[in-house]
Amino acid sequence: MTFPQFALGALTLLPLLGAAAAVVLPHPARRITGVVTAVVIALLTVPVLVTVTSGELPELVLGGFDAPLGIHLRGDGLAAVFLGVTSLVGLILTGYAAILPKSTGTFLSATAWVPGHPGFWPLWLGCWSGLNAVYLSGDLFNLYVALELVGLTAVALVALGGRKSWEPALRYLFVAVLGSLLFLAGVGLLASVTGTLDLQQTREALGGLEDPTPALLALTLMTIGLGMKVALLPMHRWLVPAHSSAPSVVSPILSGLVLKAALVVLLRCWLWAVPVLAGAEWLTWLLGGLGTAAVLAGSVLALRQDRLKPLVAYSTIAQIGYWFLAFPLLLPGENDDAELASGAYGAVVALAAGHAIAKAGLFTAAGFLKDRCGTDEIAALRGAGAHHPTLILAMGLCAVGLLGLPISLGFTGKWQLATAAVGAEHWWLFLVLAAGTLLSAGYLLRGIAPLLMQAEVDDNTPAANPVTVRERTGELAVLLLGVATLATGLLGAWVSTMLEVGSWW
Amino acid sequence: MVVNDLIPLGLVLLSVVVAAIIFPLPQRVARLRSTVNLVGAVTKLVLVVLLVPPVVAEGARPEFSVPFLPTGGGEAISLVLRVDPLALFFAGLSAVLWLLTTIYAIGYLKGTAYQSRFFGFFSLCVAATVGISFSGNLITFLVFYELLTLVTYPLVAHWGDEKSLKAARLYMRYALGGGVAVLVGVVWLTMEAGPADFAEGGAADVADFAAGSPTVAVIIFALLVGGLGVKSALVPLHSWLPAAMVAPAPVSALLHAVAVVKAGVFGIVRVVDDVYGIEVAWELGGLTPLLILASITIIYGSYQALRQTEIKRRLAFSTVSQVSYVVLGVTMFSMAGTAGGVVHLVHQGIMKITLFFCAGLFAESMGAHKISDLRGAGRRMPWTSAAFTVGAFGMIGLPPTAGFISKWQLGLGALDSPHPWVLVVLVVSSLLNAAYFLPVVYSLWFGQKEDEQDSEQEYDGADAPEPGTARTGDDARVHEPALLLIPALCTAGFTLIVGLAASLPFSPLEISRFIAEGVFS
Amino acid sequence: MDFGMDTITWYLLIAAVMVIFGMVRLLLVRDLLARLIALDVTGIGVLLTLVALAARSDATDPVLQALVITGLVIAVAFTGLGAVLIRRIEGQQDDPPGGDAP
User: Fold this and answer.
1) Which of C23, C63, C74 sits opposite A148 (nearest CB)?
2) Distances from the Cα of A77 to the Cα of A60, A74, A201, angstroms
3) I need a surface site. Which of A128, A371, B471, C44 has the fewest CB within 10 A?
4) A441 belongs to a structural domain
């Protein structure tokens, strides 16, 4: 077993071990376990990235079980990109949670609510394990299991936020389970036709079939199920309460990373498991249409929010729309232009990866302000910027990424999408992109500008209390995410070369 | 000096590093903040000056590039930073004015809140400007152009009151709208003709493309110029500029003289001269409409300036008008005209920043915001008034100021060009300039104060004169803070020196003639 | 085709009815516990479909069976979590429940 192969296995199992260890340890030790695990995971990501950059595809079959039943880990380009992003964001957020324990939620001890929930650590490490497993899974079965691990821990993480978060958490649970049931039905249908769950084998088997109907039905079921988990527009209502009532370090995890897991599974289904189907075109157009609606409606709804965290959550819904805009271009269609398809695919990945970093930063900042000021009402936060210049700067940097302005992966993604749109002569995409960018400028300004204003009564704002060293350090973590938003903007070319490793074409 | 390819990157990063150091500094460490600022500004100026001989005389072109945007299958589009004479010209302007504006701002903002934020964004703004000047292709230009929009927003909104925020919002709407137009243009052009590296005389790929499909080329040209026209405040896209006057005086000075407005015009120069190439742009018929638009802007801006009663608003409309001289020069399709337009890029910067420095001084020291408040100010603030006078004479175009050189060169260009009627525009606008500046200058020196009560003594600095002494009579001297005065006197001095020394080697005029030769090569 | 003998079709039919019934109830009912049960009914319906599909051929499909078993485990886990949440939400008005495990 080579070292990158070992890293693949360790990336999925180590966080799980960490989670198990955290369960039995007392609270302070849990924090240490969490940080150590996060650092090790981040280090283990490096050999995988290096191997993939050099054009090789690290693979590992765990426990000797081979396809169709077994654990087959494939570190291809898609996996590598999201592993990298998750390690980066996860490491920073772990640090943030360790520095500011009150961001991990509140729990009821005897009679009083105590800030800092010890349950956060095992749940977060379990979630991380699930995320890595989703990225690396080479078969539908493990994708399903890993996705469920992510969903289960994510629901529990939301519930750490105290009383107000329980109902949103339950609502999230209903949607997540329903989504995964539909996905499971789709997977079962595919397996009953092909007799295998391995992505490669499924594709080959489906390619040999004459009747595309079962595959199409399965794809539709899986897409609806995953659409619920990604919160694509008509299935988005659960996201806002869940993401805005979650503890302040959980919201960025949910918005930045957990949604991406469902997106990765969706891409795996569309691009790896199922070959180009004759009747799938209408589905891509439906997704494109829903994406457009999500970009516009999500942005308009974000503009109408009075509180910061829901505003950021609605902005997530708008950003989700961008990923689906590319679907009509994703499959080499009538003009058989594989270059366009790969461009659109690169665009989705760049947009999602950029969003992971930028949104994590913005949500952490919003949560920071909420923790500090006791409210996230924009009007009440007026003038908070004066006491937290670093935080405001970080929010600005993240906003650059969300707006899709250069230099950021958001820009790279929009650029690739726009060029693919020009190539395919889908001019409407241009309009949606432009409208989305302008609208997002509107809501981001609405969220951030009041922070820069002068408070009417200067000393009355809770933000004016002395800022502790811990809080300053926490701000630096947010700044790191902001800087990463810009710095990763220079990696667009690298990302697209990585994506070619183990791609479906 | 050894010319290294990392120099352009270093120059951009220099201001970013300064910003990074300044942002986390607490409010009270004013001295450290000022030191960092000044060290950064001086270093930048020295580096830029050292670059002039190798780049202009020896033809060195230091270039830094890094792959940035993936393309479907092909080679990735790079971020390119390259130093060519035009780039150096603009970078030089920004380096000089950054230093002076920093000194001015340190004095101006003394004792006010949020200084770390201000100077941080201020440095980022300069970084963006330097990035714009060194951009080697359209994508890179776009990157820094958008960055500039973002970092100037907090500067315009600096005071944080409703009025500033409203103005900043208006500015943001205009600038982002223009930014989107530029973005669409750049994406489209890149799809059709590749990344469009800036080249003297135009990019070859773009010329081929324009020959093949002229209609699309014209549409893209219109998108690019229209988008850039927002920042350069071409009529009818100018109304953000007078509104943005609510910003602190150093910001207004920087916005008008170097950063935002100039970035737009500089972009137009790049698009016309280095992307399409002036010959191609002329053949496409893109220049004449732009020339007409510039002429309208010049006349309209001057007319509006005449109607204003506030000093800063009059200066703002004057900027609208003056900046379009640059566009006028590069679109009149003659070598002398291009040289005149390019040289005005620098000349207008120096003169207008003088005027804004002075306007800030008048407002700070005498509380003068309206033109009528300036009556008799010449006796109370002689140095400021002298600097203002020099700047105003420059704007009118009286010899021996820099403005005279610009207008003379533009006039020569107009006679050379297919549009001799432009000369009429120049003459009319000079008359209008005189009409709105000469009365101000007259009342500065010869006006009598009618009502003492009109002007309030607002200056509250530590070393301010006793309020009583300032109020004793019309002729009482008002203290002119040195940190504010020195930059104003420097730029006023430059206005004269640049005008007098126009024919020396490495003078702005000589460099811009050299650039113009490249354009028509 | 003889309608009566095809047990598999019957199973699929029952499964479909369960899925539809469960989903409709999940969407319409407000009571939290009822929704959780409706969700489980839907889940059982889906798993039943898979079992039926697995039993089509003579040798039962091991792949599908593995899916069903995993699905069951996951459904149990989610139901447990949901039950804890419901108990907490409904216990909110009375005395707050102790314990920190979610």
Assistant:
1) C74
2) 15, 9, 19
3) B471
4) yes
As for how many domains chain A has, the answer is 1
Task: Judge whether A260 lies within some domain.
Answer: no
> Which residue on chain A is closest to B175 by alpha carbon?
A438
Phi then psi dihedrals of residue B65, to 5 deg: -140, 150
Residue B471 — very low, low, confident or very high, per pLDDT cuts 50/70/90? very low
Average pLDDT on B233-259 reads: 82
Chain A residues whose CB is inside 8 A of the C77 CB are: 148, 152
Give the C-alpha separation, A68 to C67, whole Å. 12
* C contact residues 2-21, partner A, Cβ 8 Å cutoff: none
Give the structural domain span for A475. Answer: 279-505
Identify whether A304 is part of a domain: yes
Confidence tier at A334 by pLDDT (50, 70, 90): low
Condensed to tens digits (0 to 9), the pLDDT of residues B84-114 reads: 888 888 898 888 888 999 899 888 888 887 7
pLDDT confidence band for A455 (50 / 70 / 90) = low
Please write the tens of the pLDDT for every residue from B342-391.
Answer: 999 889 989 989 998 999 888 888 888 888 888 888 888 888 999 999 99
Structure tokens at A242: 């869940």
Residue A177 corresponds to which amino acid? Answer: V
Mean pLDDT, residues A183-203 taken together: 87
Q: Which residue in B23, B176, B187 is closest to A390 by CB distance?
A: B23
Of B27, B121, B180, B209, which to mutate for an interface test with A (greatest number of A Cβ within 10 Å)? Answer: B180
* Residue A50 zone, left/alpha/beta (φ > 0; ψ -120 to 50; rest): alpha
Spacing of C-alpha A111 from chain mean position: 36
d(Cα A14, Cα B154) in Å, to the nearest integer? 45
CB-based contact B70 A490, cutoff 8 Å? no
Residue of B29, B132, B187 for testing the chain A interface, max A β-carbons within 10 Å: B187
Chains A and B touch (3+ CB pairs under 8 A): yes
User: Are C85 and A166 inside 8 Å of each other by CB?
Assistant: yes
B72: chain A residues, CB-CB within 8 Å: 339-340, 342-343, 419-420, 423
Asked if A193 and A214 touch (Cβ cutoff 8 Å), the reply is yes
Question: DSSP readout, B351-384?
Answer: HHHHHHHHHHHHHHHH---BGGGGTTHHHHSHHH
Q: What's the first-to-final CA gap in chain C, in angstroms? A: 52
Give tens-digit pLDDT for A22-71: 989 888 889 899 999 999 999 999 999 998 888 888 888 776 565 556 67
* DSSP three-state, residue A247: coil
The whole-number pLDDT of residue A427 equals 82
Query: Chain C, 68-97: which have a CB under 8 Å from a chain A CB?
Result: 70-71, 74-75, 77-78, 81-82, 85-86, 88-89, 92, 96-97
Please report whether residue A72 resides in a domain. no
Classify A377 as helix, strand or coil.
strand
* B183-189 mean pLDDT: 86
Is pTM beyond 0.80? Reply is yes
H helices present in A257-408, as ranges: 259-267, 281-303, 308-325, 327-330, 338-373, 389-403
Query: In chain C, what are the domains?
Result: 7-91 (1.10.287.3510)
Interface chains of chain C (3 or more CB pairs under 8 Å): A
Interface residue A431 vs chain B (CB under 8 A): no
Q: Is C100 on the interface with A (CB under 8 A)?
A: yes
d(CA C81, CA C85): 6
Residues of C in contact with A235 (CB under 8 A): none
- Residue ranges per structural domain of chain B: 321-521
Three-state DSSP at A115 gives strand
Give the ipTM. Answer: 0.87
Chain A touching partners, 3 or more CB pairs below 8 A: B, C
